Amino acid sequence: MKPFLWAAWSLVMRDFRVRFRRTLLGVVWFLVPLFTLVSMALFVGQDLGLYREGQSKNYLVQLLAGLLLWQLVADTWLEPMRLARRANMLLRSVVFDARVLLGAGALSALVAFALKLPVLIAALIWFQVPFTASISWFPLAVCILLAAGAAMACFTLPLSLALLDVRYAMPFVQYALLLATPVFYTAPQSGPLALINHINPFSYMIVPFRDMLTGTMPDASAVLGLLFLVCLFLGLGLYYFQAKVRLAAAYIGH
Amino acid sequence: MTQDCDIVLSLDQVSRSFPRDIADVPAAVLREMLWPRSLLNRPRPDSFFALRDITLQLRRGQKLGVIGAHRSGKSTLAGIASGVLHPTRGRVAARSSSLLVSRPTAGFKLALSLRENLAFRGTLAGLLGENLDRAVGRVLQGNLIDSKVAERPLGNLSPYLIRKLGMDLLLQIPAEMLVIDELVGAGAGEARLATRAALIERILASTALVVSTDFEFLKEVADQSMVLQQGRLYGPFHTELAFEHFLRQSDGSDMGLEPTSDLALEPDAVFDPEDEMGGIAHVEEAGRLTAFQSEDAEASMQEEDERFQRRSAKQALSHVAIAKRIVVDGEQYERSRLRLLRRPGETLDVSVDLLPNASFPCEAVELSLHSGHGLEVGRTVLMVHAVHFRQGRPSKIRFKLLIPDLPRNHYGLALHLVKQGAATSATGEIKLIVFGLQTNSPKASGLQLDVSGLSIENCLSHDASELA
Questions:
Q1: Are A246 and B85 in contact (CB < 8 Å)?
Q2: How high is the ipTM of this complex?
Q3: In this structure, are B307 and B325 located in the same domain?
Q4: Which residues pair with B441 in a beta bridge?
Q5: How many Cβ pairs closer than 8 A exist between chain A and B?
Q6: Rounded to whole angstroms, how far apart are CA atoms A238 and A157?
């Protein structure tokens, strides 16, 4: 386990050093997408009916919490693909456990999450949102979200190595899923958007965990059920990953 | 049971197929990614086999060479044997840690320091803590690099040095089995020789599958080699015999030559080992290859196999002798090293040890010169009398060739033993040497080759006859 974790950590650190080598802001760039999305939502949200006048504080906290959790899943899902693309020759010519890429992706997402977390904590303190017992579910929530993102990466990483369409489509897929999850808006009770929310599995992860951060106690059985399903999905994903990643590696460079 | 424990790598009926054109057949790639492996067994019309039904066993301590032309599936085989690639069909069982020696700078980032790059590559290979520090330290120390230079970005160093450092690090990584994919040295000049020597030393101390077209290297590290052709593996043979087989089918492009500069071979000619080696040593191996080819034909009615058989049969009728050893100006000539450079007016003193494939009276010796573009640029026929070649008896032919004034290019010299009463045929030619010509001459000045001092000596009867 130690060599595996050390290899994953080395891959993440190496990637950070290359990415932020000639930047003034360095790792602060991790916060830029979050701030952009939050400011845009606040700027046009009232006109679009995302929140009413006088609810902006509450909306801001909910939005920050929701986006933070969403980005944790999205980064855990996308980072392994990005790392594989940057180190594709390693996959083709170095004997190593390819699951290191998944581990590195999860670590990288966790580092980005840790950098953004103070912003959320500051917002919670600033807007005097009380810290309740529901916060104790937070570590489990993070683990579930990491596992869900890693499971998605298990399926899409080999595909993205073999077929570039998957790589190109991934940002659009993620934006579509983000819009299909009630992060920017309150989930409607009926209509096509409600149906979309219902069939989107991420709604069942992001929304309860976001509410948990803002004081609502989650349903324990639902969380445990979710944990079981995510672990099952991750197991299937790892099986697929092990079976296909070295098949897909043959297409690197073609 | 003890024998089974000795096997460190076993490939059983391994195949790897690809869509014919990856860019045009994304559906085939998607199918491969989505379907379970059991459904990928049957080849589809839009796929071709990079490797087909490869069965191979590597025992502990064994060193096995694999020779193959460009796009014959060498790197795919090395990848599958080392575990970086998976086959679409068949089973791979490895009972030891493996190290793929290929692309020593893979994963290096020029923006990072030398130490960071080396440490990362070592970490990925499983080195940790003290072992990692020791390995990186040894590489730096061995190349006389101080800690200041080691902290500088890699982009400040020469590409040759970077490759050598990468190679040196690879050689520090512990592994029971080595899989070498074409890489036989790194660096420039003496440094390249040093890494080559270190690699040889490492190979000799472990189990190794050496995929290479460097004959000298293969001869040094592997007694036995296999020939990879169009995804199929033939052998094992003695390395020399395997290389002869490879040369017969290769167009020379893998050995640093222009594809057409290796003269006197039909581009699609494949030799028949029984024909080449009839009645002498290696008959057993030759028989094995022939048997394999016959089995192969029965097993598969694929068009490519039929073509392979037809070529073999055609070749069996044409070759009269094999050149076993060639000495040019007192030094042994190796085809795998293109190092002969001459100027017009100089002479090449060529001595060839021939092994006749059949007994026949020889009427004439014909020498022809082909340019790198494959065109014949010169020819001469030297009549001989009372020379009788006997099957399996080595003979020596010696002559001096005056280098003609021809344009700058690579040229190949071929020899043809004309049987008494038989018509001259291009298929009977034996390629001898390839040399580079250093000249400013814009075009050919003459087509008649100036050859002197021809002698043919039968080594057993000592019946030498001066003929010219």
A1: yes
A2: 0.84
A3: no
A4: none
A5: 101
A6: 11
